[in-house]
Amino acid sequence: MTDFHRIRRLPPYVFEQVNRVKAAARNNGVDIIDLGMGNPDLDAPAHVIEKLKETIGKPRTDRYSASKGIPGLRRAQAAYYERRFGVKLNPDTQVVATLGSKEGFANMAQAITAPGDVILTPNPSYPIHAFGFLMAGGVIRSVPVEPDAQFFHAMERAVQHSIPKPIAVVVCYPSNPTATVASLDFYKDVVAFAKKNDLIVLSDLAYAELYFDDNEPPPSVLQVPGAMDVTVEFTSMSKTFSMAGWRMGFAVGNERLIAALSRVKSYLDYGAYTPIQVAAAAALNGPQECIAEMRETYKRRRDAMVDSFGRAGWDIPVPKASMFAWAPIPEPFRAMGSVEFSKLLIEKAEVAVAPGVGFGEHGDDYVRIAVVENEQRIRQAARNIRRFFEQAGTLHNVVPLSAAR
Ligand SMILES: Cc1ncc(COP(=O)(O)O)c(C=O)c1O
User: Fold this and answer.
1) If one looks up domain 5-43+290-393 in CATH, what number appears?
2) Protein residues with CB under 6 Å of any ligand 1 atom
3) Å from CA of 75 to ligand 1 middle
4) Are 367 and 344 a contacting pair, CB within 8 Å?
5) pLDDT at residue 103 tops 50
6) Confidence at residue 396, expressed as pLDDT on a 0 to 100 scale
7) Which of these, 218, 220, 259, 397, has the minimum number of CB atoms within 10 Å of its CB?
8) Strand partners, 143
9) What's the pLDDT at 11?
10) What CATH architecture is 46-285?
């Protein structure tokens, strides 16, 4: 059998290499402190779980549900946008529920991409931002993550030099993996640029509620007047309500784009299990203290991580948002690259992180640290790392175990 065209465009997840080393260590009984995957360890809010239990078994809940989401759920998402961003949405035409935001993003890429279409995506970035389009036959041109003049310079060059011209740009702030945040002024410039150059703006706002400065909640691109003409934005219940396994997210924005996504989805799925949708609506409509508590938990962990890793000799830029820190690989180890360094951390410090190159070639001098273990375990990770750095410092040459084998 020859190689499948689409599969050739999907290299094995880089993270798998590190996962294998992690699994081997665990098989040997090692207690790995796992700061790798952004998989929330917190519980979903109790009242949301109650709602789910209450709804299971009710009449008609076992049937196929609605592919674009039940009306009450779409209304709840519209109410969230109005409350949080002052953005009015028509729940019938400008909101669609998705099976997690990742599914929504990937199927939006399917909906709008013709083979050879050029899409501008940040590098490094959450993998589906590029691979959603690659799977759809598109071509990726990278732009920087930092929302500054360089970003617009790269966009200008892309518009001038890409053949054919790009059709869309992806923005993701707070960023996974870099935790970079963006201002509404930046979004104003993005929307103006997009309108001038006939680009669609796809905004991934999965970390909308995971921020640490109460005065600076991440804005939505849709707050920019006129953004609705060109924008779709994705949000997720995964991090906001620690409901990652429930697979519930949303796309909202431009009617034509939402209709295109809904059409593709109508061929593929029947929507999430109705009780999950009912409980998700209860989460959006219900008390919001659980979100503030989640934020506080991650903030304490972030502080513990920056403090303890700093004392271990690893200075980590303080993330303002998201559940991640984007940590430069300490100088003595940088040349080995992020995959080998990540393997070494597992083998020598019993700590797992995500290699930066898994998010794109421009990430290879970094690893991503997710604060998905409690403070005590984060501090333990720092102690392990300090011990490893001290031991490595006594060696003339640090040779990664995995490379030496
Ligand atoms: C930026 C970003 N977008 C989307 C997702 C996927 O979220 P969901 O669980 O809603 O599919 C993640 C998950 O880590 C993410 O970091």
Assistant:
1) 3.90.1150.10
2) 38, 100-102, 126, 172, 176, 204, 206, 236, 238, 244, 249
3) 22
4) no
5) yes
6) 38
7) 397
8) 122
9) 84
10) 3-Layer(aba) Sandwich (3.40)
